[in-house]
Amino acid sequence: MVFLLLCVTLIGAQGQVGHEKILPSETILMFTIPDIDKTIQLSKQSPQGKFWNDPSIQPAKEKFLAKWNADVVAPLEKELGIKFSDYSGIANGQMTFAVLFTKVATNTPPINVGSVFLMESGVNKEKLEKSLADIIQKYSKGHNVVTNKVRDLDFYELEINSEEVSKIIDKVIPNPSDGWETLDGPKPKPKNVQHKVSIGKVDSLFIASDSTNWIDKVVANKLGKSSTSLIDNQNFKKFYDSLQKDTTICAWANIEPIIQLATTKKPEEKKNQGQGGFDINAGKILNAIGLNGLKGIEMTVCMVPEGGMFDLFMKIPANERSGLIKALIPEQKDTSIPPYVPSNVVSFIRYRLDLQKTWATIESELEKIDPKIPSVINLVLQTAGKAKDPNFDWRNNIIGTMGDDLIIYSKNPPKATFENINNSANLFLLSSTNPEQLASSVKFLTLLSPKPPEVKEREIAGKKVYYWENPKLVRNPDKKEPARFTFVSSVANYVAIANDLSILQEFLNYSDGKYVPLKNFQGLSDAIKIVGSENSGLLIFQNAKEQTRFQYTLLKNETDTIASLLAMTPIGIRLGLGEDSKLLKQWIDPTLLPDFDKIAKYFGIAVSELNVEESGIRLKSFNPNPPGLN
Prior knowledge:
- This protein has 630 residues and is α+β, with helices and mostly antiparallel strands.
- It is built from 22 helices and 20 strands.
- The radius of gyration is 29 Å and the shape is globular.
């Protein structure tokens, strides 16, 4: 337990690089921070770091931290007999978590799976040595600590059991309902699970693992007594060599062994195959999704002077793409923002997806899982339409008229309240070869509802609009809920579907120059160029400032409502919110929070694009620094 908490607090100064040469070749996942000190400094200089240190936020921040230290940190230190501050500032370089997986032979289970945590202490190695000895000395009081020799180095095996961890949590944050009699009777005692963690060091390198076998391999690489390491994996080396000097966090995963294991049929699955019902197994599902072609995943986070970059790469070669993944890959077509999209939207998506091909692929893959599945789906949809129109044909009237362009944008609710939290105004545009027919056919889908609503018609800007009242999913007998509607219309080559009348009216009444379009939003065109182009097939925009404004205002104005909701959660019960929801204000005092306009300068926009390459699929996101923020 001490070790697990220690890992969170071991942060410090400058860094060294090299864990890729220390980890064994069996590593299938590596998550690393190349330089802790650099990452911390860049984080402080980021918009989020500047927000956290803004003078106007300090009163609320200091009250929260004081409560956290008094009610959680201090009692925890007392139970563990340590001071977390004694172990801070040790890390001096790279910090890595890795998962190791023994190579899997065909049709056999893995021999060994484990995890390793590595931390460089650099110039602080004397403090590391002292802290390690201190932990062992304190943990050995009341616990069994076994000393194992790994290549003539001492490593200490600590036993950690779930029952002891639960007792410590109960003492630090008591559960007020413990000991109460309930109609369900006493709950069964959870099974006590034993965990073993070995910790030690090689020179300035701190090592922790659930297996001394993996530690032996790490130590051998560290001492130069092994000929293979992760850097010898050519796929990893290519990724590692491509890293930019400003990379602050990166991760690499070899997915092939996991996919191979998951798609290998177990004996009981073979025995039960074809014995009625749906013949479904993990292998069929993964094949249908298209994950059988996934080789690996790579992720990087960079903090550059212009903002923050996020890059996620799924290594799935073009000739091995199949299933749902292949069906959902957009065509490389225009994703520019149309002029009718207003600048006050909080999100925008343009997705160039051929829906006819996509639906055909989905049917084909579902049929591979079990032929009954697509038959049942088509029967339900076809029957729903024919209930109103004997000539209705699900494939021709709906699927056969779909195009290859999806546009979705939304606006914040008019007021930040919990009643409005799910009431964003959304407009969905779907290109169609016959938009009038598709718009008319969509209304038949209301018949899938247990109580189909009445579909009505009206006219807006000379366009026919179908609309109906949505079923109320949550009914509050003490309060009358406002009616929610769905609106459907056709215009040009698109079908428009909206959940809000005003956003549909704005779209149907659009004329050039009527309002400022989103495409002219400050900094947006430059951000799009950084992540790719306007022909990638998928473009995503988010106005983080306005999204945060809504959430922040909700927190500031609706603290009591938030407390009432948290009171029903395990952490809320332990904080006593079930007995008195006002206790939340001892943690988060809304009267100390500044108006959002005082901190709005720290929030900007985010832009993402999906780029399809021969070797895989890449999602790139960029958060440019807000204008005027130094």
